[in-house]
Design goal:
The protein is α+β, with helices and mostly antiparallel strands. The protein contains seven helices and 18 strands. The chain folds into two domains: 276 residues, Acetylcholine Binding Protein, Chain: A (Distorted Sandwich); 138 residues, Methane Monooxygenase Hydroxylase, Chain G, domain 1, CATH 1.20.58.390. Strand 13 and strand 14 form a beta hairpin. InterPro entries: Neuro_actylchol_rec (IPR038050).
Length: 433
């Protein structure tokens, strides 16, 4: 068995390691193996293809640990074939490549020299969303908040043990505690995330990148708290600027012009009708500007609701103006200059309908249909939802306790770090992660 002093300058002969059972966990039956993890975020992209929004994401999980059995081992021989290493298993659609298949060996950590003095090993597990990416268009509920929709995409891996015979759970002690490089300590003492990506793609911004250590909260592959894994979350939100400036703001300006029509003389109903007719057609002209970028959905979105409410308000204004005209119109009819028109009676109805119309625009359309509905939908199916409310089996069986983090990738982050960051995220309570 290997167990030489760590101050050896020359490797031990290979015969020294002849009886080592490399397939067993280094501390099997004694204690969990301490694994330091670094999360490498390489890139993400949302593309539009045949009416579908496809998300692709790639990165790597780096595992670092020590195997005391390798102390004194000659690094020139390479890592022993079949040596124990972490064996992650990804959820459906989360491709972990050769590592998940058990075909990739770890390597000695850099700086080991010609002899392994501490048995330090490293295993890089590249990952990606398999099958060409995830179809974001399948998450229909969140589209109800369009163009203020957002979503959370969860992926995770659970850690399995290569050889369980003679061993007992828990097998792993996973921590995000690999020391950061000296010139990066301002971004965190530990190297949680190695970021080399952008934060914007197509219509979307990456709000934050979540990563956490998970444990089973029920009897699943072992007693509660003994089965662990790593969870990743992409919190993505649509950038609504185009749709707000080209659609929502112009639509509300149309409703504002509709209110200004009440300042025309109540007796001049044809002029009022002419203005409202033009505004009515303008609503559909505004929608035509954005129609090529709108998703084809079987239900109304927030943008659709704004357009419909503006049309409804214009019709309501027209009805009010007709009522005001009839209230001021003399019994014998209104011909020519209509000198007997009761302007005071007409203005009473104008005031009433204008006030109600204003309430409908601000209270119902803006506050309820846009603000409240967007918030309600996003809370349920947007990026703010919590881990346990996700759709996968791992969301249901695994929980985040004391190691849930989020790296907030806002404008300030982009301006400061650009496409390179190496440091820590912000600790998040497990129940809200």
């Amino acid at each position: 068995m290997g167990g030489a002093s760590t101050d050896l300058d020359e490797p031990l002969p290979m015969s020294h390691f002849a009886d080592v059972d490399w397939k067993r966990r280094p501390t099997a039956g004694i204690k969990p193996t301490h694994i330091s993890v670094v999360n490498c975020f390489l890139g993400w992209e949302v593309t539009n293809a045949h009416g579908k929004e496809i998300l692709t994401w790639s990165g790597a999980t780096e595992f670092y640990w020590e195997d005391h059995r390798l102390i004194g081992y000659p690094t020139s021989e390479g890592v022993p074939e079949g040596i124990w290493r972490p064996k992650p298993m990804g959820n459906r659609g989360f491709d972990l490549g050769e590592v998940e298949k058990g075909k990739k060996l770890p390597s000695f950590q850099s700086g080991s020299g010609k002899v392994s003095k501490q048995g330090k090993l490293k295993l890089v597990c590249p990952f990606k969303i398999g099958g060409g990416g995830t179809n974001l268009s399948e998450q229909l509920t969140r589209f109800r908040a369009f163009p203020f929709d957002s979503l959370r995409v969860d992926n995770s891996m659970v850690m399995t043990n290569m050889t369980t015979e003679g061993d007992k759970a828990p097998y792993y002690n996973i921590q995000f505690d690999r020391p950061n490089v000296k010139n990066r300590v301002d971004d965190g003492v530990y190297q949680h995330v190695d970021w080399t990506a952008c934060r914007h793609s197509d219509d979307y911004d990456l709000v934050c990148f979540g990563y956490a250590v998970t444990k089973n909260h029920e009897d699943w592959n072992g007693p509660p708290g003994t089965f662990c894994g790593i969870a990743y979350s992409l919190h993505i939100a649509r950038t609504p600027n185009f749709y707000v400036r080209k659609g929502i703001v112009p639509l509300y300006l149309v409703s504002l012009f509709g209110l200004f029509t009440f300042f025309l003389e109540p007796a001049d109903l044809p002029a009022r009708c002419s203005v409202l007719s033009a505004l009515f057609l303008t609503v559909y002209a505004i929608q035509w500007v954005t129609i090529e970028r709108l998703p084809r959905l079987p239900f109304n979105t927030v943008l659709d609701s704004v357009a419909e409410s503006v049309v409804g308000i214009l019709i309501f204004n027209l009805a009010g103006m007709c009522v005001a005209f009839r209230a001021g119109r003399p019994e014998e009819g209104c011909f020519g200059d209509c000198l007997n028109f009761d302007i005071d009676a007409a203005q009473v109805w104008d005031t009433r309908f204008a006030a109600i119309s204003t309430i409908l625009v601000l209270g119902y359309s803006v506050m309820y249909q846009v603000v409240y509905q967007s918030w309600k939908i996003s809370k349920k199916s947007g990026w703010t939802r919590t881990w346990p409310n996700g759709p996968t089996l791992f969301n249901k069986r695994m929980r985040v306790y004391d190691q849930g983090f989020r790296l907030w990738t806002d404008e300030a982050f982009g301006e400061k770090h650009g496409k390179k960051f190496m440091g820590e995220g912000v600790l998040e309570p497990g129940e809200t992660w």
